[in-house]
From TrEMBL:
Residue ranges occupied by any Mannosylglycerate hydrolase MGH1-like glycoside hydrolase domain in the UniProt entry: 38-431
GO molecular function: hydrolase activity, acting on glycosyl bonds
Species annotation: Streptomyces chisholmiae
Keywords: Glycosidase, Hydrolase
Regions that span the bilayer: none
Keyword ATP-binding among UniProt keywords: no
Name this protein carries in UniProt: Trehalase family glycosidase
Alphabetized Pfam families for the sequence: MGH1-like_GH (PF22422)
Domain of life, per lineage: Bacteria
Family: Belongs to the glycosyl hydrolase 63 family.
C-alpha cells in the first residue's frame, strides 16, 4: 500500500477520528468521557484514556493520570469522579453538593480544596502508568513521572487490599455498584434487592437529559444507588465503621488489582527498586481469585456477595476479565476461552464483540446499560487476555471488530453486540482511546506486551 492509499485507509480514518474525539474532550488538564453526559473526570476512564493518549501526546497522557492522582484521599483511595468546579451543579447527578467530600470525608483524608465523589472504580491505573512511561521513557524520566506517581499508586493498591478486604478472604470488595465500573450489571440485582430505594422524586437524573431512557438504568435502580451513596456519605466514608449494606467481591476488580501489582513490579524495577513485594502480592491475589471466585460449572469467575456469604449466580463479562493475568491455571484459561466463544457470549459466532452480560441470561438486554451491550474498554482487556494466552486468531478478529465498530458507531459509549448499533452517548473518550491504542501498534505476539512503536503514517504532530 503506497502512502496515498494508506492516508485514506479505513485504519487511518478510524485513527484520525479517534484522535479528533480525544482532542475535543480534552479540557486543559484532563479528558472528560463525554462533553454532554459525563462533564467531569472519571477514574478508570482516565486510565484507558491515558493508554490512548500515549500514542498521540505522551506528556498529555502523563498529565491525565497526574491530575486524577492529585485528588487522591489520604487513606489511599482514588475517587471515581473528580469534579470540575466550573461545571454547573445541574449538569450531572450526583453532583458535588450531594457527595460533600471535603466535609463528609475529612476524617479519612478527602482533599480540602477539591470536590470528588467518595466511591472508587477498578484499579487500571498502574497498568496505564507503565504503558504511558514506555511510550516515551525520556520524557517520563525528564518529568519524574514514575517517581511521582509510584507512591500514590502503591497507596491506592493498599487501600483496596487492606481497607476493602471486607470479607477477610484476601480480595477487595466494592461497596456500591458504581465501583465495579459496570454500574448496572445484573450481577448487582441480588444484593441490591436488600436496599430500600429513595423516591425518584427526591433527585433529578441528568443522564436522561442526554440519553435514551431505554439505554439507561431504571429509576428503581437509581433510587437504590442513591440510598447506598447517602449511607456511605453519612457515615463519613469510613470503611471500618460504615456497616456497608452492599459488599461484593468482583472478579474484574480483583483481576485488575492483581494485574496492577505486576505493573507496579515493572515500575519499581524501572526506578531501581526491588519488585519482589509486588510480585508476591500479585501471586497472592491471583491465588485468592482462583480459589474464591472461580466457578468451574459456569466456566467463568462469579462475583461473591460478602454479606450473604454466597456466590452471585449471574454471568457477566467481569468473569472473563481475569484472562488478562499471566499466571492462571491452564485449565482455567481453556474454560474461559470456551465460555467467551460459547453460547453465553458468542464471540466469533453470534457476536462481533463480547457482550457485557450472558446472552442466555434472564436479564439480557442488548440496549440497556451494562445489561448486554458490548463495551470497548472491556473488549480491549479481553483482547489483551486472549493474546496473552495464545488465542491469536480470536484476538485478531476481536481487535478488527472493535476498531471497525468504534469508527462506524461514531465512537459510541457502547454498542449492540450483534449489530454494532451505537448506544449511549457518542464521541466517547475511552472508545476513542482504545481505538488509537489498537491501531497505533501492530498486534504483539502471544504473551507479548505492546511495543513502543507507531507506524509513521499515523504519527500526529506533537502538542506537548
Amino acid at each position: 500500500m503506497d502512502r496515498a492509499d494508506q492516508a485514506t485507509s479505513p485504519h487511518t480514518t478510524a485513527y484520525n477520528g479517534a484522535r479528533r474525539v480525544l482532542t475535543g474532550n480534552w479540557v486543559g488538564a484532563s479528558t472528560v468521557p463525554s462533553r454532554s453526559l459525563y462533564p467531569h473526570q472519571w477514574s478508570w476512564d482516565s486510565a484507558f484514556i491515558a493508554v490512548g493518549l500515549r500514542h498521540l501526546w505522551p506528556v498529555r497522557a502523563q498529565r491525565e493520570l497526574e491530575t486524577l492522582l492529585a485528588a487522591q484521599w489520604d487513606d489511599g483511595r482514588v475517587p471515581h469522579i473528580v469534579f470540575n468546579p466550573e461545571v454547573p451543579l445541574t449538569a450531572y447527578f450526583p453532583s458535588p453538593d450531594f457527595w460533600r467530600s471535603s466535609t463528609a470525608g475529612a476524617a479519612v483524608g478527602a482533599p480540602a480544596g477539591r470536590e470528588t465523589s467518595g466511591l472508587v472504580q477498578p484499579p487500571v491505573h498502574a497498568l496505564a502508568a507503565w504503558l504511558v512511561h514506555r511510550a516515551d521513557p525520556a520524557a517520563s524520566a525528564r518529568r519524574g513521572f514514575l517517581r511521582r506517581v509510584y507512591p500514590r499508586l502503591v497507596a491506592w493498591q493498599r487501600y483496596l487490599t487492606e481497607a476493602r478486604d471486607l470479607g477477610g478472604r484476601g480480595l477487595a470488595s466494592i461497596v456500591h455498584p458504581w465501583e465495579s465500573g459496570m454500574d448496572n450489571s445484573p450481577c448487582w440485582d441480588p444484593p441490591l434487592s436488600r436496599i430500600e430505594p429513595v423516591g425518584s422524586d427526591t433527585f433529578h437524573r441528568a443522564d436522561l437529559d442526554h440519553g435514551r431512557r431505554a439505554d439507561r438504568p431504571t429509576d428503581l435502580d437509581y433510587g437504590r444507588y442513591v440510598r447506598l451513596a447517602e449511607h456511605y456519605r453519612d457515615h463519613g466514608y469510613r470503611d471500618d465503621t460504615c456497616g456497608h449494606p452492599f459488599a461484593v467481591e468482583d472478579p474484574a476488580v480483583n483481576a485488575l488489582l492483581a494485574l496492577s501489582e505486576h505493573a507496579l513490579a515493572d515500575i519499581a524495577g524501572a526506578l531501581g527498586r526491588d519488585p519482589s513485594d509486588h510480585l508476591v502480592r500479585a501471586e497472592a491475589l491471583t491465588t485468592a481469585l482462583v480459589k474464591r471466585l472461580w466457578h468451574a460449572e459456569s466456566g467463568l469467575f462469579l462475583s461473591h456477595d460478602v454479606i450473604a456469604g454466597e456466590p452471585i449466580p449471574e454471568h457477566s463479562a467481569a468473569g472473563l476479565i481475569p484472562l488478562v493475568l499471566p499466571d492462571l491455571p491452564a485449565e482455567t484459561v481453556r474454560a474461559l476461552v470456551a465460555t467467551v466463544t460459547g453460547p453465553r457470549f458468542g464471540l466469533g459466532e453470534r457476536t462481533r464483540m463480547v457482550p457485557s452480560y450472558d446472552l442466555t441470561g434472564p436479564c439480557f438486554d442488548p440496549a440497556r446499560y451494562w445489561r448486554g451491550p458490548a463495551w470497548f474498554n472491556v473488549n480491549w482487556l479481553i483482547e489483551r487476555g486472549l493474546r496473552r494466552h495464545g488465542e491469536l486468531a480470536l484476538a485478531n478478529e476481536l481487535r478488527a471488530n472493535l476498531t471497525r465498530l468504534a469508527a462506524s458507531s461514531g465512537y459510541a459509549e457502547y454498542v449492540d453486540p450483534f449489530s454494532g448499533e451505537a448506544r449511549g452517548t457518542r464521541d466517547f473518550s475511552w472508545t476513542a482511546a482504545v481505538t488509537v491504542d489498537l491501531l497505533a501498534d501492530p498486534p504483539p505476539p502471544a504473551g507479548g506486551e505492546l511495543p513502543a512503536y507507531r507506524p509513521a503514517a499515523l504519527v500526529p504532530a506533537a502538542l506537548d
